[in-house]
């Protein structure tokens, strides 16, 4: 719909014009699997941007302070810290390898000079402390500057060590390891608004943890049937409410969302609210069941709405209305007739994420061919943009893209059959306060921001 | 016919995907397995309803389901131990490692003689060796009785699917096996008395079918 005529149709809220800012990652055509980005997350202030990859590595970018001599150029994101969060492991009991791929990163709100984040793979969650060291002590009594111990008998005078500046060093250390609580593969973690607890969800269970306690967790949702052969749905995502620390939601592979209140009972198997849209019989097809599976659920910043992503659409739900979503946005409806091919090449199983803008006025999600889609909820306009190295001149405006669904292909349009299904944008993040977005395209991270008027 | 072929192709593809998902790093993914089995179920329903539309009266076993176990074996041998990419070949859809030695994880209960072999034998025995039935050990006879019940399901599959309890997800193991027994000549789960029967019949294939292994893997996960 958007971008008709290829003009500069504004996207996002308030007539934004998106421009290229930066791209991180290797340029090689040959992409190493370990470098494929698997999660992207801004911290609460937006000054830090974390990415996790399939190789278990976390890279944190920090926004540079704005340059006073160039007030029109926003701060750039540069590498702040890189560390290996998870390593491949082997479960000897089940003879299974546990992948080191980082499934999710979630930041904790900052409480002191250090930064904390949770990162998880399929089985283990880790709390990392990222701290800066820019001073070091010099003038120890018992050891030399190079660390060699001094002979105590040779010490004739005592001195007080003094702190001297040094090159900034950013250290990441694992402070807590939350392991052995999940039989199935962890798909979500979510920090509670109380800043003391968090949840982790796998296919069948959700556990509640205290950040200080690693040897125990409470199981709050368990949908495992007594007889596994009767399994009909799995948990696909879960999140805590941004303000109400007793409320969380979880989505299922059947396209439903359950909202639970931890005050009502210890085990929240019975939902407080059940969100499901009745299926449209006219759109029922062979693959209906699997494309209705929800791949991501996110509360709005206000806490009034939540958004879900299934294979072909994003839906915005009002928490007060369970019967149907208040908005439905088609992401790539032209793929509906291609579902069989997408099943063959496994693309139908891709799990796309979605995110809200800081003001909740716009939502964003990814698609194929390195396209991503943005929907403005106030103006009801949507746009398709592309993350590509070809549009990577600094501050170059992004041109809206259009997919031709049939008939004559106009200039600048791309036909459905020409789409590259290996170039998929599954992970995106929106700065909490400003119009800056991070888009992960395989092994590259693109950062776009709006043109400062 | 096209619909039938397409449905069959999708079923084949799904089983192949399930087999491969077992091999990937991180092990079997529950969500993926569930989605694959949903597609398989839909494909099966489509296949059966298309078959019903195509052939209103009941028909005997379609050519796909070779009644001759020897012929079936040789076809499987051609399929080989390698994971055959789904090529729409209806007769050897599975990367079944038919020559694989019995695996440690096999339980005797899973050792299932093929219904066609059993039915052939039963037909033979009823026609020509009727007198021998009394000489067969009682356990074997019991197996045959139960197999008879199971085998009678074989032609039933051609009829419109009976009203199943679609509320609950059908027993995955049973559904997978039933669904594919027509294509693969795998029998439904044999009763526990199978082992002596297995040993008694030299033609009984102790090697578990890939399907059974897959199913067990999904169920046990």
TrEMBL record, chain A:
Keywords: Repeat, WD repeat. It comes from the Eukaryota. The keyword Protein biosynthesis does not apply. InterPro entries: PP2A_PR55, PP2A_PR55_CS, WD40/YVTN_repeat-like_dom_sf, WD40_repeat_dom_sf, WD40_rpt. Residues 384-406 are annotated as: Disordered. Gene3D superfamilies: YVTN repeat-like/Quinoprotein amine dehydrogenase (2.130.10.10). Residues 384-393 have a biased composition (Basic and acidic residues). Belongs to the phosphatase 2A regulatory subunit B family. This is Serine/threonine-protein phosphatase 2A 55 kDa regulatory subunit B. It comes from Vulpes vulpes (Red fox). The gene is PPP2R2D.
UniProtKB/TrEMBL annotation, chain B:
Pfam families: IER. The gene is IER2. Belongs to the IER family. Coiled coil: none annotated. GO terms for biological process: cell motility; positive regulation of transcription by RNA polymerase II. Residues 80-90 have a biased composition (Low complexity). Residues 67-78, 96-108 have a biased composition (Basic and acidic residues). One of its GO terms (cellular component) is nucleoplasm. Residues 56-171 are annotated as: Disordered. This is Immediate early response gene 2 protein. It comes from the Eukaryota.
């Amino acid at each position: 719909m958007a971008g008709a005529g290829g003009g500069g149709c504004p996207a996002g809220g308030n007539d934004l014009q998106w421009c290229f800012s930066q791209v991180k990652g290797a340029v090689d055509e040959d992409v190493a699997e370990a470098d494929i980005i698997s999660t992207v997350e801004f911290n609460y202030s937006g000054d830090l941007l974390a990415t996790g990859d399939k190789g278990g590595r976390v890279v944190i970018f920090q926004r540079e302070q704005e340059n006073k001599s160039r007030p029109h150029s926003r701060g750039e994101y540069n590498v702040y810290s890189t560390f290996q969060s998870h390593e491949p492991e082997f479960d000897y009991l089940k003879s299974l390898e546990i992948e080191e791929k980082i499934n999710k990163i979630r930041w904790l709100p900052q409480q002191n000079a250090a930064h904390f984040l949770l990162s998880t793979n399929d089985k283990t969650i880790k709390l990392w402390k990222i701290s800066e060291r820019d001073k070091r002590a010099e003038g120890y009594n018992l050891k030399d500057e190079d660390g060699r111990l001094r002979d105590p008998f040779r010490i004739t005078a005592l001195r007080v060590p003094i702190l001297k500046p040094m090159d900034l060093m950013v250290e990441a250390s694992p402070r807590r390891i939350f392991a052995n609580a999940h039989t199935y593969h962890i798909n979500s973690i979510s920090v509670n608004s109380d800043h003391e607890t968090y949840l982790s969800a796998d296919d069948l269970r959700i556990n509640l943890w205290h950040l200080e306690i690693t040897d125990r967790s409470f199981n709050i949702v368990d949908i495992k049937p007594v007889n596994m052969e009767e399994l009909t749905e799995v948990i696909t995502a879960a999140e805590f409410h941004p303000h109400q620390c007793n409320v969380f939601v979880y989505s299922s592979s059947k396209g439903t969302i359950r909202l639970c209140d931890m005050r009502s009972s210890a085990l929240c198997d019975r939902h407080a609210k059940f969100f499901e849209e009745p299926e449209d019989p006219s759109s029922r097809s062979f693959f209906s069941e699997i494309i209705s599976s929800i791949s991501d659920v996110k509360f709005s910043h206000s806490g009034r709405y939540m958004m879900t992503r299934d294979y072909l659409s994003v839906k915005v739900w009002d928490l007060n209305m369970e019967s149907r979503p208040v908005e439905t946005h088609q992401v790539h409806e032209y793929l509906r007739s291609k579902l069989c091919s997408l099943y063959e090449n496994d693309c139908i199983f891709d799990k796309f994420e979605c995110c809200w803008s800081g003001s909740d006025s716009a939502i964003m999600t990814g698609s194929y061919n390195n396209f991503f889609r943005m929907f403005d909820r106030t103006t009801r306009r949507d746009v398709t943009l592309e993350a590509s190295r070809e549009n990577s001149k600094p501050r170059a405006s992004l041109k809206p893209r259009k997919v031709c669904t049939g008939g004559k292909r106009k200039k600048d349009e791309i036909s459905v059959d020409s789409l590259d299904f290996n170039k998929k944008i599954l992970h995106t993040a929106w700065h909490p306060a400003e119009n800056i977005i991070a888009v992960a395209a395989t092994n590259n991270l693109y950062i776009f921001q709006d043109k400062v008027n | 016919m096209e619909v039938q072929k397409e449905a069959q192709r999708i079923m084949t593809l799904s089983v192949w995907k399930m087999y491969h998902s077992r091999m990937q790093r991180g092990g079997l993914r529950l969500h993926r397995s569930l989605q694959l089995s949903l597609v398989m179920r839909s494909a099966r329903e489509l296949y059966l309803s298309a078959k019903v539309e195509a052939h209103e009266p009941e028909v005997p076993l379609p050519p796909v389901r070779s009644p001759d176990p020897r012929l079936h074996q040789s076809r499987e041998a051609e399929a080989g131990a390698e994971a055959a990419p789904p090529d729409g070949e209806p007769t050897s859809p599975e990367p079944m490692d038919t020559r694989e030695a019995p695996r440690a994880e096999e339980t005797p209960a899973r050792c299932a003689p093929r219904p066609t072999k059993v039915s052939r034998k039963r037909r033979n025995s009823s026609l020509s060796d009727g007198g021998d039935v009394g000489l067969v050990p009682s356990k074997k006879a019991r197996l045959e009785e139960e197999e008879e019940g199971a085998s009678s399901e074989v032609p039933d599959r051609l009829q419109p699917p009976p009203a199943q309890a679609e509320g609950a997800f059908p027993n995955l193991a049973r559904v997978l096996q039933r669904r594919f027994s027509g294509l693969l000549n795998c029998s439904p789960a044999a009763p526990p008395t199978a082992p002596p029967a297995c040993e008694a019949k030299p033609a009984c294939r102790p090697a578990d079918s890939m399907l059974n292994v897959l199913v067990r893997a999904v169920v046990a996960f």
